[in-house]
Amino acid sequence: MAESVESYTIQKEASRILHSILLTDPRLQIPDSVKAAAARTSFDTSALSAPFLPAPVKCTELSAALWALLATFGNAIASERYNLADQKVVVNSDVASIFLISFWLMRVGGKPVSDPGLVKRYSIYDTTQQFTFWRRLVTNLYPTRDGGWFHLHGGLNSDRSLRMLGLPTHKNVGDEMEAVNGIYQAVQQFDAEWLDIEANEYWRQAGGICLTPEEYRDTEQGKAMADDGLYLLEEFPHEKLPQVPWPQVDTKTYRPLEGIKIVDLTRAIAGPTIAKLAALFGATVVRVSNVKLPDLGIVLMESNLGKRDTHLDLKTEEGREALRNLIQDADVVLDGYRPGVLEKLGFGPAYVHEIARRRGKGIVYARENCYGWKGPWKHRSGWQQISDTVTGIAWLFARMWDSDEPIMPFLPNSDFQTGIVGCIAVMNALGKRAKKGGNYLVSMSLNQLNSFLISLGTQSPEVQQSLRDMWPKMKLRSYDDIHRQMRVLLSDLPKKVPQLLNPKYFNTIKADLGVPDEEMIFVGPAATYETTRLGYDLGSCLRGTHEAKWPDGR
Q: Is the dihedral of CA 65, 69, 72, 78 positive or negative?
């Protein structure tokens, strides 16, 4: 029998997703020790119980459930490593929600990310001027000549998308709507399918046709991915790769991943979030960046929490040799680049696993992309907006608001939740390595996350009506990109849901962002243990702050 609207709570639904769906999914290969530890995982009843995010899909519920699975994996590992057999963990769904917009809620030196001085500091990474109106609003949803909708994406450099449309790569416009109208008129000259092939196959620039969930499932890509779980975990046993016991550490925090070394080769949000969470759970993370390339500065300021960041140019012999030396002592390599890029540079799964065989110690290679790792679109680059477009999320938002045009989500949900999934998969693979030895390959994608989210069903009609009543200003248009939407959401958030900004949900740490003795305030962990204390060893740092080596004693 379906649960009544009156009895539905975020905590009950998150618990159902955890226990009835995630823990019982054989594709996730969850060990019995983790399933047993789930009995000691609970959801904080002091958190808000009724859905509050203006979304038709269950963003809060799934985020809380994934945090619970991550925390449960962590608890099982802590039990094995530190003899904490009876430790309980509590997951707060409020924090699991604000985790999804965490970099917008960060404060550095007491200032919000909208502060002009702070904007100037992180804009140094916008080397391609992506945040001018003209270039930013290339990344947006536009109607096409044949009555369809196509989401362009400029990535970290909009030049190719603009040239594809026959538009100037730079143009001074008076406001956002002038940019929207100029790009709209150009897109209207083309059919959606032409843009899809032209952008992805010729210009090698991300973009996607806006599909309903039903239409996506009927595509060859949807069919290829239909049987995949939230992640794929592949084991490669070898006689030279025995069990790798968890490292012996002297700890006062009892975090599950202490002593584990991770090389972070990711950019944007999903991949860096995997590494950021691993650092929260105790791992030592070295992020490899290139100070000559553009980056998402506002995201980087928060996603570099707990990491050391080193500059390497992987197109030089010196850079490649330095990376190989890092991998030589690593337990995990994270790959968040466009599919195939690291293979071309010599650091795909095959060679990294060969390094492991030569040294006699297995390694976990974790990779994430947009479309998934099989099917005709697996080679394409992609971003959160593209996944939300092609899998049907945008049309679900449109249905909620009774709109005849698709509406993009106001938050990078699939990015952040794929990050949680990735950290879960890495923990699982490390646990298997400790018991069985071997090399491992774990693969995640934004589309896998979105397909799973859609499979959970939408909020009930009554809940969706309550959310429309609560957030009337969030009935937006197809051309309202995430920046325009977040301005509306963040302006109303303190009035609509003040509990989400409870100071106890935030932590403070000393940052290394170019100003001496500066502190940053950030969204804390959604999980709280009885003995284990989650936290970062380091605040965020600028790119290239550290040398390409593991810290002493790690």
A: negative
71, containing H or E segment = helix 59-82
pLDDT of residue 554: 61
Neighbour count for residue 74 (Cβ, 10 Å): 30
Helix (H) or strand (E) holding 263: strand 261-265
Cα dihedral 212, 213, 219, 224, rounded to 10, equals 160
Strands 107-108 and 111-112 come out as: antiparallel
Strand ranges (E), 321-435: 332-335, 364-369
- Residue written as token pair 């509306």: 488
- The phi, psi pair for 58, rounded to 5°, reads -90, 65
User: CA angle at residue 300 from 119 to 537, to 5 degrees?
Assistant: 120
Contact (Cβ atoms closer than 8 angstroms) between residue 263 and residue 332: yes
Asked whether 309 and 541 are in contact (CB, 8 A), the reply is yes
Residue 37 CA to residue 44 CA, distance in Å, equals 17
Give how far Cα 372 sits from Cα of 208, 385, 419, Å: 14, 15, 14
Mean pLDDT of 353-372: 98
Residues 140-166: tens digit of each pLDDT: 999 999 999 999 999 999 999 999 999
Amino acid 15 reads S
* Secondary structure class of 305 (helix, strand, coil): coil
Please tell me whether the overall predicted TM-score, pTM, comes out greater than 0.85 for this model: yes
Cβ(80)–Cβ(43) below 8 Å? no
Other C-beta atoms lying within 10 Å of the C-beta of residue 214: 10
Consecutive H or E run containing 523: strand 519-523
pLDDT of residue 1: 40
Quick one: which of 509, 534, 378, 532 has its CA closest to 108?
509
Query: Encoding tokens for residue 323?
Result: 């990376």
Q: Which helix (H) or strand (E) holds 352?
A: helix 349-359
* pLDDT above 90 (res 553): no
pLDDT tens for residues 317-350?
Answer: 999 999 999 999 999 999 999 999 999 999 999 9
* Distance from C-alpha of 526 to C-alpha of 402, rounded to nearest angstrom: 33
* Alpha-carbon span 388 to 164, nearest angstrom: 23
Q: What are phi and psi of 442, to 5 degrees?
A: -120, 140
Look at residue 503 and tell me whether its pLDDT is greater than 80: yes
H helix intervals, 83-219: 93-98, 102-105, 116-122, 133-136, 159-164, 176-187, 192-197, 213-218
Q: What percent of the chain has pLDDT over 70?
A: 99
Kindly tell me the sign of the dihedral angle through the C-alpha atoms of 523, 527, 531, 535.
negative
Average pLDDT over residues 468-478: 97
* Rounded to 5°, angle at Cα 198 from 193 and 203: 155
Whether 315 shows a pLDDT value over 60: the answer reads yes
Residue 475 CA: distances (Å) to CA of 258, 270, 307, 468, 495: 45, 27, 38, 8, 17
For the four alpha carbons of 126, 128, 129 and 135, in that order, the dihedral sign comes to negative
